Amino acid sequence: xxxxxxxxxxxxxxxxxxxxxxxxxxxxxxxxxxxxxxxxxxxxxxxxxxxxxxxxxxxxxxxxxxxxxxxxxxxxxxxxxxxxxxxxxxxxxxxxxxxxxxxx
Length: 104
Hints:
Layout: H1 5-25, E1 31-33, H2 34-45, E2 48-54, E3 60-65, E4 71-77, E5 82-90
């Protein structure tokens, strides 16, 4: 079957309409003021910052999580204070192994 421009446009709009409920279910914005994101993660998911680190480009990476190893969220924070959720999941744990020595 050949995909004609009208058919391609119809499929595109149908996919947007079907995906809209998925996007609407997201409880947190993808990017917002970091303090607002942190407050929302604490109040809604009992996640607090576990780890923070800076990058060479000035952004910070913040990992929040539940103390019991439940859910976690990784946030990239721009220098202007806007945080963007990069990833999230569940079942995190602290590593009991020491990192390998890095020569350089």
